[in-house]
Every structure is written in C-alpha cells, then in structure tokens.
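[step 3/7] fold_predict: job queued, chain A
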Amino acid sequence: MTKTITEIMAEVGKVPANFEEYLGLYADKVGDLINQYIETGTHPDMDRYLYDPLRAYSQFGGKRHRPLICFLACQAVGGNPDLATSAAAAIEHFHTAALIHDDIADDAKTRRGEPCLHLSEGLGLAINTGDLALSLVNGTVIKDERLTAEQRIRVVTELVNMTCRTIEGQAMDIGWARDERYDLSPDDYLCMATHKTAHYSGGVPLAVGAIIGGASEDVVEGLRSYGMDTGLAFQIQDDLLNLVGTAEATQKDFRSDITEGKRTLVVVHALKHADQQDRERLVQILSSKEEDPAVLDEAVQIMVKTGSVDYARDYALQLTDRAKKSLVQTLPESPARGILLSMADWFVSRLG
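[step 4/7] structure written:
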C-alpha cells in the first residue's frame, strides 16, 4: 500500500531547515504517491504503449517542487496534507504533460539527461502519453471522495484555469518564435511567462493546498500571490541557467533557448538595448536554429554586453524580495512558513 505524505514525513523523522533540504528529503519519496493515479491497462499493449511509458517518465520526476509546495501550503494553514494528495498529483501530472508536449514543440533532444519521450517512444506515442497525463489532472481530484463536493469543484476550477493560462503562455512563446517576432518588450515577456509558468509552478499549487487546508480567502490569495511572484522568478532563473549555467547542472540542451529562438527576458532586453550591429547579429543567430557552441556563446556575450543577464537576475531578485515581505504578513510564523520563505531564495539561486 502506498504511504501517505504524513507517513513519509514521519519515516524521515527530520524537520528540514530550508526549502532545498525539504526537496532533498522528499522529492525521491513521493513518486509512488504521484503514480498511484496512473491506471493499469486492460490489455498488455495498453501498458506497453501508454501506461508504462507515463509511469516510467513520472517516476523520475525531478525535484517535485510543485506537489511538495501544495502539501506545504496545506500544512502552513493548519490542514491535513494527506487530503491534498490527489491535487498535488494532478499538478505534477500536468507538469509531465507540459514537458512532453513542450519537448515535441521545441524539437528538444534531452530531458533530465535522457532522450526525450518523442525520441525514445516515437512522436505519436509521446503525444498520446502527454494526453493521458492531461486527462489525470481533473480526474484524480473528481474521484477523491476524501474531499467534500465543494472542495472538489473549487480545486478542479483552479486546475482548469491553470491549464488554460499555461496553454495561453505556451502559445505566445511558440508563436513568437514561429513568426520571428523581434518587436517584443520586457512586459510582453512577463505576460507570457506569468501565464506559461507562474500559475502552475507557484500560484495554483499554493492556493490549492491552502483551499484544501481550510484557509480563509485572504490567506488563499496571499499564498497565490506569493506563488505567482516566485513562480515568475523561477522561470527567469530557468532562462538564465539555459544561457549561463552549465550543461551538467541543467541536464538539458545547454543554450537550446537560443537554438529554438526563445524570447526570454534576457533576449528581449538585449534586442532593445544592443547597438545596431549587435542587434542584427543576435537576430541572425536566433533565426538560424544555430547549434554551434561558439556561435551560441557569441549570442550570450551580446546579452552580457547589454547588461541583459544582470537585468534579468535583478528582476528575479526583486520579485522574490517582494514575495517574502508579503508572505510574512499572510501567514503566522511556523516551520512550514519558514520553508516557504526559503523557497523564494532557492528559486533564484538553484543551479538546475
């Protein structure tokens, strides 16, 4: 029988000092919690071509920060985190679907140091597996009889809105690259990244955990706001790591954002502030699907020269500073609040 998050925490028997330690203690232990919502097929080939690939992909799910902050928010408001299991799993399965489909859209090669699913299983099966993960988002919560009917409706409404907002942001991201848009402003990027990442990587997991924990509307919205600011900072840091991190640290295609022509905050700032010669060269590189490491480095150097890397890093720090001040006023002091506060710092200092 799958252990509950409360049982897992009791088994670990240690109160984490900060968010990084929290992830380290529990990230590898919640895989079974997430995967218990993946069914077994009624024919062996359903497992071979659908359920097993999703189960295997999900089992090695990275740092699991989204389900873990959902549990943490529930604890922080005095709720029972076990009741948040279906919602936490739903958000993680949405993340899985987003990664599978995103890698297909970007024609990416690796994910978490392994070949992307569309390369290992084929394009059609990868799309289908991502679709299955999407189907689990609402189904896991609707079937959870431990939640009241009101809670289920409220949480599913959050998940539907989260899905829509993320897809809106993804459409902007892909469309800008397809149409070779170079007329974008930092505000355009912030709108895209808020939709694409902040809702499902911060705002909704925290709001849902608080809702299930029985928090007041003010606290729910306070936690949502904290998650939106830190989730946006998380995406900016992700963009920075792709440009100026290391291939080993990110376990992704290093500088693939340049190859894919992504309009990150660094890029749109650089396009606005570069001199004509550097701007034309940067546009040329972003438009050429370039993979030569020397050329990719040339693009990064233009971004450094314009101060765009520092600009993005400073913006992320401003977001987390604002978020932490707000959270202190939203929640009373507790070990859970302390871990949540340190989450903001981890989001902008992580190396992968």
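[step 5/7] annotate
Residues 1 and 32 are 10 Å apart (CA to CA).
The chain is about 75% helix and 0% strand.
exit 0
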